[in-house]
Amino acid sequence: MSVIISRGRLKLLGHRLRERLWVKPLVICLLSIANVFVAKLADDTDLAQFVPAISADSIESLLSIMASSMLVIATFAVGSMVSAYASASSTATPRSFRLVIADDVSQNALSTFIGAFIFSVVALTAAKNDYFESAGLFTLFILMAAVFSIVILTFLRWVDRIARLGRLGMTIDVVEKATADALKRRRDAPTLQGVAKRPYDPVGKAVFATRVGYVQHVDIAALQACAEKGQGRIVVTALPGTFAAPGQALACVSDSPDGNTAIDCEQVIQSFLIGDDRTFQEDPRFGLVVLSEIAGRALSPAVNDPGTAIDVIGTFVRLFVLWNDSGAQEEGEAPKYDRVEVPELAVRDLFDDAFTAIARDGAGTVEVAVRLQKALRSLALIGDSAMRGAAAYHGRLALARTEQALNLPEDAATVRAVAALTQTAAFERTG
Protein backbone atom coordinates (compact mmCIF):
# COMPACT_ATOMS: atom_id res chain seq x y z
CA MET A 1 0.00 0.00 0.00
CA SER A 2 2.89 2.31 0.76
CA VAL A 3 4.10 1.93 -2.79
CA ILE A 4 0.84 3.38 -4.08
CA ILE A 5 0.41 6.38 -1.82
CA SER A 6 4.02 7.31 -1.07
CA ARG A 7 4.92 10.97 -1.30
CA GLY A 8 7.46 10.40 -4.05
CA ARG A 9 4.91 8.71 -6.28
CA LEU A 10 2.40 11.47 -5.70
CA LYS A 11 4.96 14.07 -6.77
CA LEU A 12 5.76 12.02 -9.85
CA LEU A 13 2.04 11.80 -10.64
CA GLY A 14 1.82 15.58 -10.34
CA HIS A 15 4.60 16.00 -12.90
CA ARG A 16 2.81 13.57 -15.22
CA LEU A 17 -0.43 15.54 -14.97
CA ARG A 18 1.40 18.76 -15.84
CA GLU A 19 2.38 17.17 -19.14
CA ARG A 20 -1.26 16.51 -20.06
CA LEU A 21 -2.94 19.34 -21.94
CA TRP A 22 -6.44 18.32 -20.92
CA VAL A 23 -6.02 18.58 -17.12
CA LYS A 24 -6.05 22.36 -16.63
CA PRO A 25 -8.77 23.02 -19.26
CA LEU A 26 -10.99 20.43 -17.58
CA VAL A 27 -10.57 22.04 -14.16
CA ILE A 28 -11.23 25.52 -15.55
CA CYS A 29 -14.32 24.31 -17.40
CA LEU A 30 -15.79 22.89 -14.20
CA LEU A 31 -15.07 26.14 -12.37
CA SER A 32 -16.68 28.13 -15.20
CA ILE A 33 -19.87 26.09 -14.97
CA ALA A 34 -19.87 26.51 -11.20
CA ASN A 35 -19.56 30.31 -11.56
CA VAL A 36 -22.76 30.45 -13.59
CA PHE A 37 -24.69 28.78 -10.82
CA VAL A 38 -23.01 30.98 -8.21
CA ALA A 39 -24.74 33.92 -9.88
CA LYS A 40 -28.09 32.25 -9.25
CA LEU A 41 -27.41 32.25 -5.51
CA ALA A 42 -27.59 36.05 -5.56
CA ASP A 43 -31.32 35.82 -6.33
CA ASP A 44 -31.88 34.33 -2.86
CA THR A 45 -30.47 37.45 -1.18
CA ASP A 46 -31.56 41.09 -0.84
CA LEU A 47 -28.91 42.21 -3.32
CA ALA A 48 -31.54 43.32 -5.86
CA GLN A 49 -32.48 46.24 -3.61
CA PHE A 50 -28.99 47.75 -3.78
CA VAL A 51 -27.76 47.12 -7.30
CA PRO A 52 -28.85 48.63 -10.61
CA ALA A 53 -31.02 46.63 -12.95
CA ILE A 54 -29.20 45.00 -15.86
CA SER A 55 -31.03 44.25 -19.09
CA ALA A 56 -31.10 40.56 -19.97
CA ASP A 57 -30.80 41.45 -23.68
CA SER A 58 -27.52 43.30 -23.14
CA ILE A 59 -26.04 40.40 -21.20
CA GLU A 60 -27.15 37.93 -23.86
CA SER A 61 -25.54 40.05 -26.57
CA LEU A 62 -22.25 40.27 -24.72
CA LEU A 63 -22.28 36.55 -23.94
CA SER A 64 -22.94 35.76 -27.60
CA ILE A 65 -19.95 37.86 -28.65
CA MET A 66 -17.75 36.21 -26.03
CA ALA A 67 -18.84 32.69 -27.01
CA SER A 68 -18.10 33.17 -30.70
CA SER A 69 -14.77 34.96 -30.16
CA MET A 70 -13.46 32.56 -27.50
CA LEU A 71 -13.99 29.56 -29.75
CA VAL A 72 -11.92 31.23 -32.47
CA ILE A 73 -9.17 32.25 -30.02
CA ALA A 74 -9.04 28.77 -28.46
CA THR A 75 -8.68 27.20 -31.90
CA PHE A 76 -5.93 29.68 -32.76
CA ALA A 77 -4.18 28.93 -29.48
CA VAL A 78 -4.18 25.19 -30.12
CA GLY A 79 -2.76 25.69 -33.62
CA SER A 80 -0.01 27.98 -32.35
CA MET A 81 0.93 25.60 -29.56
CA VAL A 82 1.10 22.61 -31.91
CA SER A 83 3.39 24.59 -34.23
CA ALA A 84 5.61 25.53 -31.29
CA TYR A 85 5.82 21.91 -30.13
CA ALA A 86 6.75 20.74 -33.62
CA SER A 87 9.40 23.45 -33.82
CA ALA A 88 10.92 22.39 -30.50
CA SER A 89 11.12 18.76 -31.62
CA SER A 90 12.67 19.56 -34.99
CA THR A 91 15.11 22.34 -34.08
CA ALA A 92 16.25 21.03 -30.68
CA THR A 93 15.52 17.37 -29.90
CA PRO A 94 12.33 15.30 -29.50
CA ARG A 95 13.37 14.56 -25.91
CA SER A 96 12.61 18.19 -25.00
CA PHE A 97 8.94 17.83 -25.96
CA ARG A 98 7.82 16.90 -22.44
CA LEU A 99 9.22 20.12 -21.02
CA VAL A 100 7.89 22.38 -23.75
CA ILE A 101 4.37 20.96 -23.51
CA ALA A 102 4.41 21.52 -19.74
CA ASP A 103 4.76 25.29 -20.23
CA ASP A 104 2.47 26.84 -17.61
CA VAL A 105 1.77 30.07 -19.50
CA SER A 106 0.50 28.28 -22.61
CA GLN A 107 -1.54 25.77 -20.62
CA ASN A 108 -3.08 28.55 -18.54
CA ALA A 109 -3.91 30.54 -21.67
CA LEU A 110 -5.59 27.59 -23.38
CA SER A 111 -7.49 26.79 -20.18
CA THR A 112 -8.64 30.41 -19.86
CA PHE A 113 -9.90 30.59 -23.44
CA ILE A 114 -11.77 27.30 -23.24
CA GLY A 115 -13.12 28.12 -19.79
CA ALA A 116 -14.40 31.50 -21.01
CA PHE A 117 -16.10 29.79 -23.94
CA ILE A 118 -17.81 27.26 -21.66
CA PHE A 119 -18.81 29.99 -19.22
CA SER A 120 -20.37 32.13 -21.97
CA VAL A 121 -22.27 29.20 -23.52
CA VAL A 122 -23.68 27.97 -20.20
CA ALA A 123 -24.51 31.50 -19.01
CA LEU A 124 -26.14 32.39 -22.35
CA THR A 125 -28.29 29.27 -22.23
CA ALA A 126 -29.38 30.04 -18.68
CA ALA A 127 -30.10 33.70 -19.44
CA LYS A 128 -32.20 32.91 -22.50
CA ASN A 129 -34.34 30.56 -20.42
CA ASP A 130 -34.99 33.25 -17.76
CA TYR A 131 -32.99 31.36 -15.17
CA PHE A 132 -31.81 34.57 -13.44
CA GLU A 133 -33.68 37.34 -11.72
CA SER A 134 -32.46 40.92 -11.20
CA ALA A 135 -29.74 40.15 -8.63
CA GLY A 136 -28.61 37.10 -10.57
CA LEU A 137 -28.29 39.11 -13.79
CA PHE A 138 -26.21 41.76 -12.05
CA THR A 139 -23.93 39.11 -10.52
CA LEU A 140 -23.63 37.42 -13.90
CA PHE A 141 -22.67 40.76 -15.44
CA ILE A 142 -19.90 41.23 -12.84
CA LEU A 143 -18.63 37.70 -13.44
CA MET A 144 -18.71 38.26 -17.18
CA ALA A 145 -16.70 41.47 -16.85
CA ALA A 146 -14.16 39.66 -14.66
CA VAL A 147 -13.84 36.79 -17.13
CA PHE A 148 -13.43 39.22 -20.02
CA SER A 149 -10.66 41.09 -18.14
CA ILE A 150 -8.85 37.85 -17.36
CA VAL A 151 -9.07 36.80 -21.01
CA ILE A 152 -7.54 40.08 -22.22
CA LEU A 153 -4.66 39.96 -19.74
CA THR A 154 -4.03 36.29 -20.44
CA PHE A 155 -4.06 36.86 -24.19
CA LEU A 156 -1.52 39.69 -23.98
CA ARG A 157 0.79 37.60 -21.81
CA TRP A 158 0.37 34.52 -23.96
CA VAL A 159 1.14 36.35 -27.23
CA ASP A 160 4.53 37.33 -25.81
CA ARG A 161 5.12 33.76 -24.69
CA ILE A 162 4.00 31.98 -27.85
CA ALA A 163 6.37 34.14 -29.90
CA ARG A 164 9.27 32.43 -28.09
CA LEU A 165 7.79 29.04 -27.23
CA GLY A 166 9.53 26.30 -29.18
CA ARG A 167 12.42 28.51 -30.23
CA LEU A 168 15.83 26.94 -29.74
CA GLY A 169 17.06 29.42 -27.16
CA MET A 170 13.99 29.03 -24.99
CA THR A 171 14.12 25.25 -25.30
CA ILE A 172 17.70 25.26 -24.04
CA ASP A 173 16.65 27.46 -21.10
CA VAL A 174 13.77 25.13 -20.23
CA VAL A 175 15.99 22.04 -20.34
CA GLU A 176 18.65 23.82 -18.30
CA LYS A 177 16.13 24.71 -15.60
CA ALA A 178 14.79 21.15 -15.41
CA THR A 179 18.33 19.76 -15.25
CA ALA A 180 19.37 22.28 -12.60
CA ASP A 181 16.39 21.35 -10.44
CA ALA A 182 17.24 17.65 -10.73
CA LEU A 183 20.92 18.29 -9.97
CA LYS A 184 20.07 20.36 -6.89
CA ARG A 185 17.78 17.64 -5.56
CA ARG A 186 20.43 14.98 -6.08
CA ARG A 187 23.20 17.23 -4.74
CA ASP A 188 21.26 17.83 -1.53
CA ALA A 189 20.38 14.12 -1.24
CA PRO A 190 23.18 12.26 -3.07
CA THR A 191 21.99 8.89 -1.76
CA LEU A 192 18.26 9.75 -1.88
CA GLN A 193 18.33 9.98 1.96
CA GLY A 194 19.59 6.43 2.17
CA VAL A 195 23.02 5.12 3.20
CA ALA A 196 25.94 5.50 0.82
CA LYS A 197 26.64 2.27 -1.02
CA ARG A 198 29.77 0.52 0.20
CA PRO A 199 32.53 0.08 -2.39
CA TYR A 200 32.47 -3.73 -2.51
CA ASP A 201 29.85 -5.75 -4.35
CA PRO A 202 26.68 -6.38 -2.31
CA VAL A 203 26.11 -9.83 -0.83
CA GLY A 204 22.63 -11.27 -1.02
CA LYS A 205 19.85 -12.10 -3.43
CA ALA A 206 19.53 -10.07 -6.60
CA VAL A 207 16.04 -8.77 -7.47
CA PHE A 208 15.47 -8.52 -11.21
CA ALA A 209 13.23 -6.31 -13.30
CA THR A 210 10.07 -7.87 -14.70
CA ARG A 211 9.58 -5.46 -17.60
CA VAL A 212 11.66 -3.56 -20.12
CA GLY A 213 12.06 0.20 -19.77
CA TYR A 214 13.82 2.94 -17.86
CA VAL A 215 13.76 3.32 -14.10
CA GLN A 216 11.85 6.55 -13.51
CA HIS A 217 11.48 6.54 -9.74
CA VAL A 218 12.87 4.57 -6.80
CA ASP A 219 10.63 4.61 -3.73
CA ILE A 220 13.26 4.61 -0.99
CA ALA A 221 10.62 4.86 1.74
CA ALA A 222 8.93 1.69 0.49
CA LEU A 223 12.29 -0.10 0.32
CA GLN A 224 13.01 0.96 3.90
CA ALA A 225 9.65 -0.45 5.00
CA CYS A 226 10.42 -3.74 3.22
CA ALA A 227 13.86 -3.93 4.82
CA GLU A 228 12.48 -3.21 8.31
CA LYS A 229 9.75 -5.80 7.91
CA GLY A 230 12.23 -8.44 6.77
CA GLN A 231 14.92 -7.32 9.24
CA GLY A 232 17.40 -6.99 6.39
CA ARG A 233 19.15 -4.54 4.11
CA ILE A 234 18.59 -3.50 0.50
CA VAL A 235 21.25 -2.24 -1.90
CA VAL A 236 19.89 -0.27 -4.86
CA THR A 237 21.76 -1.09 -8.08
CA ALA A 238 19.50 0.70 -10.59
CA LEU A 239 19.15 4.46 -10.16
CA PRO A 240 16.59 6.55 -12.07
CA GLY A 241 17.66 6.60 -15.70
CA THR A 242 18.95 3.03 -15.73
CA PHE A 243 17.69 0.83 -18.54
CA ALA A 244 15.95 -2.15 -16.96
CA ALA A 245 15.15 -5.52 -18.47
CA PRO A 246 14.52 -9.06 -17.21
CA GLY A 247 17.89 -10.27 -16.02
CA GLN A 248 18.92 -6.73 -15.01
CA ALA A 249 19.24 -6.44 -11.23
CA LEU A 250 17.31 -3.61 -9.64
CA ALA A 251 18.51 -4.23 -6.10
CA CYS A 252 20.22 -6.76 -3.87
CA VAL A 253 18.51 -7.85 -0.63
CA SER A 254 19.96 -9.68 2.36
CA ASP A 255 19.59 -9.93 6.12
CA SER A 256 22.68 -11.93 6.96
CA PRO A 257 26.21 -12.37 5.61
CA ASP A 258 25.30 -15.70 4.01
CA GLY A 259 22.71 -14.01 1.77
CA ASN A 260 19.52 -15.43 3.25
CA THR A 261 16.60 -13.02 3.31
CA ALA A 262 13.03 -12.72 4.48
CA ILE A 263 12.39 -9.56 2.47
CA ASP A 264 9.44 -9.64 0.08
CA CYS A 265 11.12 -9.36 -3.33
CA GLU A 266 7.83 -8.57 -5.06
CA GLN A 267 7.43 -5.48 -2.91
CA VAL A 268 10.98 -4.48 -3.79
CA ILE A 269 10.19 -4.74 -7.51
CA GLN A 270 7.06 -2.63 -7.06
CA SER A 271 9.19 0.08 -5.43
CA PHE A 272 10.88 0.69 -8.80
CA LEU A 273 8.70 2.57 -11.27
CA ILE A 274 9.70 1.58 -14.80
CA GLY A 275 8.42 3.41 -17.87
CA ASP A 276 9.11 3.61 -21.58
CA ASP A 277 11.05 6.90 -21.43
CA ARG A 278 13.56 8.64 -19.22
CA THR A 279 12.30 11.62 -17.24
CA PHE A 280 13.89 14.85 -16.06
CA GLN A 281 12.57 15.01 -12.49
CA GLU A 282 14.80 12.41 -10.83
CA ASP A 283 17.34 11.72 -13.55
CA PRO A 284 19.91 14.58 -13.77
CA ARG A 285 21.96 12.71 -16.35
CA PHE A 286 19.03 12.74 -18.78
CA GLY A 287 19.00 16.54 -18.82
CA LEU A 288 22.71 16.57 -19.65
CA VAL A 289 22.12 14.07 -22.45
CA VAL A 290 19.31 16.19 -23.93
CA LEU A 291 21.46 19.34 -23.88
CA SER A 292 24.25 17.37 -25.53
CA GLU A 293 21.82 16.20 -28.22
CA ILE A 294 20.83 19.82 -28.91
CA ALA A 295 24.49 20.74 -29.35
CA GLY A 296 25.09 17.68 -31.55
CA ARG A 297 22.21 18.60 -33.84
CA ALA A 298 23.51 22.16 -34.10
CA LEU A 299 26.94 20.84 -35.11
CA SER A 300 25.56 18.56 -37.83
CA PRO A 301 26.47 19.54 -41.42
CA ALA A 302 22.80 20.14 -42.20
CA VAL A 303 22.49 22.81 -39.49
CA ASN A 304 26.08 24.06 -39.04
CA ASP A 305 25.37 26.25 -36.01
CA PRO A 306 28.46 26.23 -33.75
CA GLY A 307 27.06 29.17 -31.78
CA THR A 308 24.37 26.95 -30.27
CA ALA A 309 26.98 24.37 -29.29
CA ILE A 310 29.02 27.10 -27.60
CA ASP A 311 25.87 28.23 -25.78
CA VAL A 312 25.28 24.67 -24.54
CA ILE A 313 28.88 24.43 -23.32
CA GLY A 314 28.29 27.55 -21.23
CA THR A 315 25.13 25.94 -19.90
CA PHE A 316 27.14 22.89 -18.83
CA VAL A 317 29.58 25.08 -16.92
CA ARG A 318 26.72 26.68 -14.99
CA LEU A 319 25.21 23.29 -14.21
CA PHE A 320 28.48 21.79 -12.96
CA VAL A 321 29.18 24.89 -10.86
CA LEU A 322 25.77 24.31 -9.30
CA TRP A 323 26.59 20.64 -8.76
CA ASN A 324 29.91 21.52 -7.12
CA ASP A 325 28.25 23.99 -4.74
CA SER A 326 27.85 22.05 -1.50
CA GLY A 327 26.54 24.95 0.56
CA ALA A 328 23.04 23.47 0.81
CA GLN A 329 24.24 20.14 2.21
CA GLU A 330 24.05 19.48 5.90
CA GLU A 331 27.18 17.82 7.18
CA GLY A 332 26.80 14.97 9.63
CA GLU A 333 23.06 14.52 9.12
CA ALA A 334 22.00 10.93 9.78
CA PRO A 335 20.38 9.16 6.81
CA LYS A 336 16.62 8.89 6.98
CA TYR A 337 16.54 5.38 5.50
CA ASP A 338 19.35 3.49 7.23
CA ARG A 339 18.55 0.06 5.79
CA VAL A 340 18.80 1.10 2.13
CA GLU A 341 22.15 1.61 0.40
CA VAL A 342 22.13 3.86 -2.66
CA PRO A 343 25.09 4.60 -4.96
CA GLU A 344 25.99 8.21 -5.60
CA LEU A 345 26.26 9.70 -9.07
CA ALA A 346 29.81 9.67 -10.41
CA VAL A 347 31.17 12.97 -11.71
CA ARG A 348 32.94 11.11 -14.52
CA ASP A 349 29.58 9.78 -15.73
CA LEU A 350 28.10 13.28 -15.68
CA PHE A 351 31.02 14.58 -17.72
CA ASP A 352 30.62 11.69 -20.18
CA ASP A 353 26.97 12.58 -20.72
CA ALA A 354 27.73 16.26 -21.19
CA PHE A 355 30.97 16.55 -23.15
CA THR A 356 31.59 13.36 -25.12
CA ALA A 357 29.20 14.11 -27.99
CA ILE A 358 30.24 17.76 -28.23
CA ALA A 359 33.93 16.83 -28.32
CA ARG A 360 33.23 14.30 -31.07
CA ASP A 361 30.90 16.39 -33.23
CA GLY A 362 32.74 19.67 -32.69
CA ALA A 363 36.26 18.34 -33.13
CA GLY A 364 36.50 19.81 -36.61
CA THR A 365 35.28 23.27 -35.55
CA VAL A 366 38.08 25.24 -33.96
CA GLU A 367 35.87 27.71 -32.09
CA VAL A 368 33.90 24.91 -30.45
CA ALA A 369 37.06 22.98 -29.57
CA VAL A 370 38.62 26.07 -27.98
CA ARG A 371 35.50 26.91 -25.99
CA LEU A 372 35.23 23.32 -24.79
CA GLN A 373 38.81 23.37 -23.48
CA LYS A 374 38.17 26.70 -21.74
CA ALA A 375 35.04 25.30 -20.11
CA LEU A 376 36.93 22.23 -18.88
CA ARG A 377 39.69 24.48 -17.52
CA SER A 378 37.11 26.55 -15.61
CA LEU A 379 35.67 23.39 -14.07
CA ALA A 380 39.14 22.12 -13.17
CA LEU A 381 39.84 25.37 -11.33
CA ILE A 382 36.67 25.35 -9.23
CA GLY A 383 35.91 21.66 -8.79
CA ASP A 384 36.95 19.02 -6.28
CA SER A 385 39.42 16.23 -7.05
CA ALA A 386 36.81 14.14 -8.87
CA MET A 387 35.77 17.04 -11.09
CA ARG A 388 39.39 17.98 -11.76
CA GLY A 389 40.16 14.43 -12.82
CA ALA A 390 37.12 14.31 -15.08
CA ALA A 391 37.97 17.68 -16.63
CA ALA A 392 41.57 16.62 -17.31
CA TYR A 393 40.46 13.33 -18.86
CA HIS A 394 37.91 14.94 -21.16
CA GLY A 395 40.38 17.69 -22.04
CA ARG A 396 42.89 15.08 -23.26
CA LEU A 397 40.16 13.15 -25.08
CA ALA A 398 38.80 16.26 -26.81
CA LEU A 399 42.31 17.31 -27.84
CA ALA A 400 42.98 13.90 -29.39
CA ARG A 401 39.78 14.12 -31.40
CA THR A 402 40.55 17.68 -32.48
CA GLU A 403 44.05 16.84 -33.66
CA GLN A 404 42.62 14.16 -35.93
CA ALA A 405 39.78 16.34 -37.27
CA LEU A 406 41.50 19.70 -37.92
CA ASN A 407 43.40 20.01 -41.17
CA LEU A 408 45.10 23.34 -40.55
CA PRO A 409 48.16 23.05 -38.24
CA GLU A 410 47.63 26.57 -36.89
CA ASP A 411 44.11 25.66 -35.70
CA ALA A 412 45.38 22.52 -34.03
CA ALA A 413 48.14 24.51 -32.33
CA THR A 414 45.59 26.98 -30.98
CA VAL A 415 43.49 24.22 -29.45
CA ARG A 416 46.62 22.48 -28.14
CA ALA A 417 47.72 25.63 -26.31
CA VAL A 418 44.35 26.02 -24.59
CA ALA A 419 44.25 22.31 -23.74
CA ALA A 420 47.65 22.63 -22.05
CA LEU A 421 46.15 25.25 -19.75
CA THR A 422 43.36 22.82 -18.86
CA GLN A 423 45.85 20.11 -17.88
CA THR A 424 47.95 22.61 -15.97
CA ALA A 425 44.92 23.83 -14.00
CA ALA A 426 43.94 20.27 -13.07
CA PHE A 427 47.53 19.37 -12.09
CA GLU A 428 48.17 22.50 -10.04
CA ARG A 429 44.95 22.14 -8.05
CA THR A 430 45.74 18.47 -7.43
CA GLY A 431 49.25 19.29 -6.31
Automatic annotation (TrEMBL):
Q: Does the keyword Transmembrane apply?
A: yes
Cleavable signal peptide? none
Any one Pfam family here would be DUF2254
Bilayer-crossing residues are 21-42, 62-88, 109-126, 138-159
The UniProt record lists the keyword Cytoplasm: no
Q: Which InterPro entries match?
A: DUF2254_membrane
Tell me which domain of life the UniProt entry assigns to the organism this sequence originates from.
Bacteria
Which UniProt key words apply to this protein?
A: Membrane, Transmembrane, Transmembrane helix
Protein name in UniProt: DUF2254 domain-containing protein
